[in-house]
C-alpha cells in the first residue's frame, strides 16, 4: 500500500471514530422516568440530611438505584421484576460489607458475586444496566468502614432505600401506563452455555483481576476499579467495548473537572442532596442518547455517592486523581477482558474445557 493509501485508510478510521464519538442516539424515554429515578436516589439523602446522618442517607440512596431496573412491561410483571432486583441489590451489598471484615477474601467474594449476579441477569435477560449496579453496591460495601455490629444497620438501610424505590416505581408505573402502552412480557429464550455461563465466568474473573491489581498497586478505596471494568465489558461486541471504553475515559476526564469544580464549592448536607438529585436526572436523561456525555456527570455523582459523608476531610484533588486512576485501570482490564470475551479462538479453547464441568442436561 502506498503512503497516500495508508493515509487515506487512517483518515477513514479516524473519521469513523469521531463519528462514533459524536453520534447522539434517538430515545423515546419520557422525562418522568429520569425525574422518578432522581427522586428514588435523592429522597434518602434529604432524610439523611434532616436527621444529620448523611452516611445513612448515602447507603439508602445506593439502594434507590434499583429503580433503574424497572422494565417497561405490564404493572404486575414490572413490580415483581423490580422487587427481585431489590433483593439482589440488598444481597450484593451485604456480601460486600461482610467481605470488608476479612480483607484477604474481598477479591474472592467480589469475583463470586460478579459471576453469580451476571449469570442470573443473563438467565433472566435483565436489560441495561444489567449486573452493573449490583457489583457497584458490592464494591462500595466492601470499602465501607465499620465493624461486624454495623452490618445489620447498613443492610437494613440499603433495603429501606430499595423499598422506597419500589414505592416510587409503583406510582410512576401507574401514571406512565396511562400515557403509553406497556411492552409485552415475552417468554424467556432457552439459556445457552456460552451466554449464561461462559461469559459470566470471564466477566467475573476480570472483575476480580481488576480488584486484585488495585490491591497490588495499593490504591486506596478502589471500589470504582471493578465497576469500570464491568461497565466496559458489557458491550455486545468488541466494537461496542471499544466505544464504551473511549466514551468512559473521555467522559471521566471531563467529569473530573466538573467534580473538582463541585468539590471546590462550600457544599453542605442540603446542597449535596440537591446536587446529587440534579446529577441523577441529567445522567438518566443523557445515558440512552450519548454514554460519553452521561459519563461526565456519572463521575461527580459516584464520587459524591461514595464520599459525600467524608467531604472536607481530605484533598479534593487527591480524591479526583484517585478516581481517574481507578477508572483507567478498570477500563484497561475491561478492554483486555472484552478482547478475550469476543475472541473465537479463546472461546473455543477455554469454553470447551469449561463445558465439561457443567452437566450437559442444563444447556444445549
Structure write-up:
This protein is mainly alpha-helical and 364 residues long. The protein folds into two domains: 30-183, no CATH class; 213-355, no CATH class. The chain contains 14 helices and no strands. It has helices at residues 3-22, 32-50, 54-64, 75-100, 106-123, 132-142, 151-176, 193-216, 224-233, 238-263, 269-286, 291-307, 316-341, 344-355. Helix 2 (32-50) packs antiparallel against helix 7 (151-176) and helix 4 runs antiparallel to helix 7. The longest helix has 26 residues, at 75-100. The chain is globular, with a radius of gyration of 21 Å. The relative contact order is 0.13.
Descriptive key words:
mainly alpha, 364 residues, globular, 2 domains
Quick overview:
It is found in: Membrane. This protein has 364 residues and is mainly α.
Write the layout of secondary structure elements.
Layout: H1 3-22, H2 32-50, H3 54-64, H4 75-100, H5 106-123, H6 132-142, H7 151-176, H8 193-216, H9 224-233, H10 238-263, H11 269-286, H12 291-307, H13 316-341, H14 344-355
Helix pairs in contact: 2-3, 2-7, 2-11, 3-7, 4-5, 4-6, 4-7, 5-6, 5-8, 6-9, 8-9, 8-13, 9-10, 9-13, 10-12, 10-13, 11-12
Transmembrane segments: 56-72, 79-99, 105-124, 131-149, 155-175, 196-217, 249-265, 293-312, 324-346
Pfam families: FUSC_2
Domain Integral membrane bound transporter: 210-336
Amino acid at each position: 500500500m502506498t503512503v497516500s493509501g495508508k493515509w487515506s485508510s487512517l483518515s477513514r478510521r479516524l473519521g469513523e471514530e469521531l463519528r462514533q464519538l459524536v453520534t447522539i442516539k434517538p430515545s423515546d424515554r419520557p422525562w418522568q422516568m429520569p425525574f422518578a429515578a432522581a427522586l428514588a436516589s435523592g429522597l434518602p439523602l434529604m432524610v439523611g440530611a434532616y436527621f444529620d446522618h448523611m452516611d445513612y442517607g448515602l447507603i439508602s440512596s445506593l439502594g434507590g438505584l434499583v429503580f433503574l431496573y424497572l422494565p417497561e412491561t405490564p404493572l404486575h410483571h414490572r413490580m415483581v421484576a423490580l422487587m427481585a432486583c431489590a433483593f439482589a441489590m440488598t444481597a450484593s451489598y451485604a456480601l460486600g460489607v461482610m467481605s470488608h471484615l476479612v480483607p484477604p477474601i474481598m477479591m474472592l467474594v467480589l469475583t463470586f458475586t460478579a459471576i453469580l449476579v451476571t449469570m442470573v441477569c443473563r438467565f433472566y435477560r435483565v436489560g441495561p444496566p444489567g449486573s452493573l449496579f449490583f457489583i457497584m453496591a458490592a464494591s462500595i460495601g466492601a470499602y465501607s468502614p465499620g465493624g461486624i455490629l454495623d452490618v445489620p444497620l447498613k443492610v437494613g438501610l440499603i433495603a429501606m432505600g430499595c423499598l422506597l424505590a419500589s414505592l416510587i416505581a409503583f406510582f410512576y408505573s401507574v401514571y406512565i401506563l396511562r400515557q403509553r402502552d406497556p411492552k409485552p412480557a415475552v417468554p424467556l429464550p432457552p439459556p445457552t452455555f456460552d451466554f449464561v455461563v461462559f461469559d459470566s465466568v470471564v466477566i467475573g474473573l476480570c472483575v476480580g483481576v481488576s480488584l486484585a491489581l488495585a490491591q497490588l498497586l495499593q490504591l486506596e478505596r478502589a471500589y470504582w476499579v471493578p465497576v469500570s471494568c464491568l461497565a466496559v465489558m458489557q458491550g455486545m461486541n468488541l466494537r461496542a467495548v471499544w466505544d464504551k471504553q473511549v466514551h468512559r475515559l473521555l467522559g471521566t476526564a471531563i467529569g473530573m473537572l466538573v467534580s473538582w469544580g463541585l468539590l471546590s464549592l462550600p457544599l453542605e448536607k442540603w446542597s449535596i442532596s440537591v446536587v446529587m438529585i440534579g446529577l441523577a436526572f441529567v445522567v438518566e436523561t443523557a445515558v440512552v442518547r450519548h454514554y460519553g456525555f452521561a459519563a461526565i456527570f456519572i463521575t461527580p455523582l459516584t464520587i459524591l455517592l461514595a464520599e459525600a459523608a467524608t467531604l472536607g476531610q481530605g484533598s479534593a484533588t487527591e480524591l479526583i486523581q484517585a478516581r481517574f486512576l481507578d477508572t483507567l485501570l478498570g477500563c484497561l482490564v475491561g478492554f483486555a477482558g472484552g478482547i478475550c470475551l469476543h475472541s473465537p479462538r479463546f472461546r473455543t479453547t477455554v469454553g470447551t474445557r469449561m463445558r465439561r464441568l457443567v452437566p450437559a442436561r442444563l444447556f444445549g
